[in-house]
Design goal:
- The complex is a heterodimer of chains A (about 280) and B (about 450).
- Chain A contains six helices and eleven strands.
- By secondary structure, chain A is α+β, with helices and mostly antiparallel strands.
- Chain A has a single domain, classed as NADH:ubiquinone oxidoreductase Nqo5 subunit (Beta Polymerase, domain 2), CATH 3.30.460.80.
- The longest helix of chain A is centred in the N-terminal third of the chain and has 12 residues.
- Helices cover about 45% and strands about 10% of the residues of chain B.
- Chain B has 19 helices and eleven strands.
- In chain B, strands 8, 9, 10 and 11 form a four-stranded antiparallel β-sheet that branches. In chain B, strands 1-2-3 form a three-stranded antiparallel β-sheet.
- In chain B, strand 9 and strand 10 form a beta hairpin.
- The two termini of chain B are about 30 Å apart.
- The N terminus of chain B is likely disordered.
Chain lengths: ~280, ~450
């Protein structure tokens, strides 16, 4: 019923400045250290960044040159969910482009800028390490190049201006249509000293699913990485004992991947069977 | 070794057992498969040393569900301890990807079955952030959520204290703990219709308003608790046997907690007042008067005292909620946006709870559009804009968070739960190694792992 054309990654690099979410850009929580920077500063240059020293200036310029493009993850056709025209018949080839929030450029507002700038001061080749920064719904996501992840998390944990002491865990995500970087690992880091939370996102191709482990920095990631390996098949190099944790040791395949086959339940009624959930009718 | 599973000549051999050649290379290999106790003892006698590998669980009564502890013992001392988990893995996260956003609540409520409302809340807060409706949730829905969360915290801590007491032989603590918990579950049943697995907290609000007489029953419950909670303190706080079993057992200091990601009562037992209800308030927690409880011993006894004190604080919050709810009769409990709010209405009829007759009359007899709207929302569900969100809350066991990702569809693209039981359980070896076998039970009980949450 849905997705007649199948999920495809379009090469539509649309201009999407308007999609930079301004509305939800206020960091939440009562203890914002410098909450006087209002989210309105997203629309214009903030004075504190301009006066932030030459290093920060070049950084800002570097990132600003990269055109923010939303990540198109699918184009869906059909009447379900389509909006914007009055045609609900389904014959109009209604198409819906599914875009993830576009990367934003600095200034981000609030403490986000100070974290961003501090990382810039500590990391010499900033744009190699952090490939994009996405601010969406009051949360900030740093997309990190896999090879630099252990170095970055060590800095994030130990630097006095950052102090992300607690890693809340690793969460795997499988984007089959995101060619060349199908498997994502998402880390949530919490700074208890400054009461800030950031998200790191790392992606690897399905064909070579190797990521460096961060257990050396955050021992708590041990089981989380094992779970991500168990469910997604991401291999964390340097993990002390990367084995399955929830599934049995001899389980074939990685169940949380989107292409993992799902079972249907045979029903004893005139030979009918219930199809697997991914093949049932859906209105996605 | 690699092809043991497929090799027909190897049928009957244990695929996970040590291979014959392993002895030579690295000394004796201890395997952790299930064994007959007699053969274990015979092996031990033959070997002549005191070292022995014992599987505690997964069916051991004092491992809090199907937790398997693999203990390497030297006499009665634990040399090495490892956890085997996964016996209760039910693929809830995967299942949620094939249900609508609202139906997801009924799945995640079953994860940490002692704190179902906390699972629901963190998931719903994530969905609401993605929908960007966090500030449109009606006041009454937030008060009801806080009320239910705190009642749930009391019932969860009661189970922890009760089962923890039972495991060290304090059976009265167990019986009175479940007696009090039953009162809380009665209140849950009155308000949500179910004792567990409520699916009460929904994206946009809560499933239904307080029924008739609920506030009276809640006031009775508070009175009951005020009367009976002191019993735990009287039984345990200064009980020399209780203190002897718990004090200085399962120590984990602040650095250890943070390295291992341990949150909740074990973290607060180190003296650090980290509580997300205060640090990153959600559902309006900043407007309630309560204290974060800490202790400074970093051991099992401190965790027990924190849980005891937290129940009193929760009771304070519950009373404030009752006072607010008295003034909110008739206020909405679901978001006003009809594109998100669940259209179906429930009411109690002569044969139990079911669809409200008024709502049925409206959609079947009065408004075709209302019927279509109801049908579309219930079968198809609402769409959530693409993106990801993570809104952790303070569950009875620590930081519980749902990482929800939407691809713009009517179902979660991915929902991952950071469960505190799962993370805290990693600290078991750090707390147990070098101690006595008997202290393993106490240490694990002080972490209060719930296997439904660990394995999901």
């Amino acid at each position: 019923m849905s997705d007649e054309s199948g999920p495809q990654r379009d090469d539509l690099h649309e201009e999407s400045d308007a999609q930079v979410p301004v509305k939800g850009a206020v960091p939440e929580g009562e203890s914002e250290p410098d909450a006087d920077t209002k989210p309105e500063s997203l629309t214009g240059p903030a004075p504190d960044v301009a006066s932030g020293g030459t290093e920060a200036d070049t950084l800002t310029a570097e990132v600003a040159r990269v055109e923010p493009t939303a990540e198109v993850i699918a184009t869906r056709r059909g009447m379900f969910g389509a909006a914007g025209t009055g045609d609900t018949s389904g014959y109009g080839l209604l198409a819906r482009t599914i875009e993830f929030p576009a990367p934003s450029s600095p200034p981000y507002g609030g403490w986000w800028d100070s974290v961003y700038e501090r990382i810039g001061e500590l990391v010499p080749d900033y744009s190699d390490v952090i490939t994009a920064v996405v601010v969406h719904r009051g949360e900030i996501t740093f997309h990190v190049a896999p090879e630099h992840l252990p170095m970055l998390v060590r800095l994030l944990r130990d630097d006095a201006h950052l102090r992300f002491e607690l890693c809340s865990g690793v969460s795997g995500v499988h984007y089959p249509q995101d060619k060349g970087r199908e498997l994502h690992a998402v880390y949530h880091l919490q700074s208890m000293t400054h009461n800030r939370r950031i998200r790191l996102e790392v992606s690897v191709p399905d064909s070579d699913p190797h990521l460096p482990s961060i257990v050396a920095t955050y021992p708590t990631a041990d089981w989380h990485e094992r779970e991500t390996y168990d469910m997604f098949g991401i291999i964390f190099d340097g993990h002390p004992a990367l084995t399955r944790i929830l599934m049995p040791d001899d389980w074939p395949g990685y169940p949380q991947r989107k292409d993992y086959p799902l079972g249907g339940v045979p029903v004893e009624y005139k030979g009918a069977t219930v199809p697997p959930p991914d093949q049932r009718r859906s209105y996605h | 070794m690699t092809d043991v599973l497929n090799d027909p000549t190897q049928v009957g051999e244990d695929p996970y057992g040590a291979s014959a050649g392993a002895d030579a290379a690295e000394g004796r290999v201890y395997t952790v498969t299930g064994q007959d106790w007699d053969s274990l003892v015979a092996d031990q006698a033959e070997r002549g040393d005191e070292r022995i590998v014992v599987n505690m669980g997964p069916q051991h009564p004092s491992t809090h569900g199907v937790l398997r502890l693999i203990l390497e013992l030297e006499g009665e001392s634990v040399i090495e301890a490892r956890c085997g988990i996964g016996y209760l893995h039910t693929g809830i996260e995967k299942n949620m990807e094939y249900r609508t956003w609202t139906q997801g609540v009924t799945f995640c409520t079953r994860m940490d079955y002692l704190a179902p409302l906390h699972n629901e809340t963190t998931y719903c807060l994530g969905v609401e952030r993605l929908l960007d409706i966090t500030d449109q949730i009606p006041e009454k829905a937030n008060v009801l959520r806080v009320l239910m969360l705190e009642l749930n915290r009391i019932s969860s801590h009661l189970v922890c204290i009760a089962t923890g007491g039972m495991e060290i032989g304090a059976l009265t603590v167990m019986t009175i703990g479940f007696r009090e918990r039953e009162k809380v579950l009665d209140a849950f049943e009155l308000i949500t219709g179910l004792r567990m697995n409520h699916a009460y907290i929904r994206p946009g609000g809560v499933a239904q308003d307080l029924p008739e007489g609920a506030l009276d029953q809640l006031r009775d419950l508070v009175r009951w608790m005020r009367k009976h909670l002191p019993e735990y303190a009287a039984f345990c706080n200064e009980n020399p046997i209780f203190k002897g079993r718990l004090a200085d057992v399962g120590r984990l200091d602040l650095a250890g907690c943070l390295a291992l990601g341990v949150t909740g009562p074990p973290l607060r037992a180190t003296g650090y007042d980290w509580d997300l209800r205060k640090k990153q308030p959600y559902c309006g927690y900043e407007t309630y008067d309560f204290e974060v409880q800490t202790w400074d011993t970093a051991d099992a006894y401190g965790r027990f005292r924190i849980r005891l004190n937290e129940m009193w604080e929760s009771l304070k919050i519950v009373e404030q909620c009752i006072a607010r709810l008295e003034k909110m009769q008739g206020s909405p409990i679901m978001i006003g946006n009809k594109k998100i709010a669940w259209p179906a209405q429930l009411s109690v009829g002569s044969d139990g709870m079911g669809n409200s007759n008024e709502h049925l009359k409206h959609i079947m007899g009065e408004s075709m559009e209302a019927l279509i709207h109801h049908f579309k929302l219930v079968t198809e569900g609402f769409r959530v804009p693409p993106g990801q969100a993570y809104v952790p809350i303070e569950s009875p066991r620590g930081e519980l968070g749902a990482h929800v990702i939407s691809d713009g569809g009517t179902r979660p693209f991915r929902a991952h739960f950071r469960d505190p039981s799962f993370t805290n359980l990693q600290a078991m070896p750090a707390m147990c190694e070098g101690g006595m076998v008997s202290d393993v039970v106490v240490a694990v009980a002080s972490l209060d792992p719930v296997m439904g949450g660990v394995d999901r």
